[in-house]
Amino acid sequence: MARLPRSFYDRDTIEVARDLLGKHLVHRVDGVERVGRIVETEAYLGPHDLAAHSAKGLTPRTRVMFGPPGHAYVYFVYGMHWCVNVVTQAEGTASAVLLRALEPVRNVEGRTNGPALLCRAMGIDGRLNGHDLLGRTFFLEASRSEEAVRIVKRPRIGVDYAGPRWARRLLRFYIHGNPYVSRL
Fold first, then answer.
1. What is the pLDDT of residues 23-49, one digit of tens each?
2. Is residue 169 over pLDDT 80?
3. Which of 44, 31, 41 is nearest to 123 (CA)?
4. pTM for this one?
């Protein structure tokens, strides 16, 4: 299978969020390759998007979001959970796509229908923050048989604090009918 090139990430964030559906997330841990099919994503559109972490500007936490595309932005939330995003668009844009849910493909144990559950099952934590997704141990790739999928658009989850303009935008995408989606 082909690893996704840098040019895949260096595009409009909404397009990347939609195009990630059906792709495989791969993490090699202790010689074991964990693979999950991405079935749900959310787009975060940069500092003007009040739901994005980058809305607070460049900070030590958000530095990776402001960097070049094709890197992992992994952050800790609620003092107990890891979440992983894929940085998109040109350096300085500070846009990213949150990976919300995976369908297990190989060597994935535990639930994967939510960002924190996905990270736990895939062995993703803060050590992968800033990781280049073109590397050998943590990357995204096209699946062997990418079938056409029906994509559902909904508002993002848990972003009411961003106000109605941003909380109601249809920036969450998932594969229709997939049982691993976090919420319908």
1. 999 999 999 999 999 999 999 999 999
2. yes
3. 31
4. 0.96
Nearest to residue 17, comparing CAs of 170, 134, 159?
Answer: 170
Take residue 112 and report the two structure tokens written for it: 């994967």
Tens of pLDDT, residue by residue over 111-130, are 999 999 999 999 999 999 99
CA neighbor of 37 nearest in space, from 129, 100, 128? 100
- C-beta neighbour count of 22 within 10 angstroms: 20
Which pLDDT score, from 0 to 100, does residue 147 have?
A: 75
Residue 15: which residues within 8 A CB-CB, separation 6 or more?
none
At 115 the pLDDT is 97
Output the CA angle 70-147-150, nearest 5 degrees: 85
CA distance linking residue 80 with residue 178, whole number of Å: 27
Cβ atoms of 163 and 104 closer than 8 Å: no
Q: Answer yes or no: is pLDDT of 162 > 90.
A: yes
Instruction: Name the residue type at position 20.
Output: L
Task: Round to whole Å and give the CA distance between 87 and 102.
Answer: 18
Distance CA 184, CA 174 (A): 9
Q: How many CB atoms lie within 10 A of CB 18?
A: 17
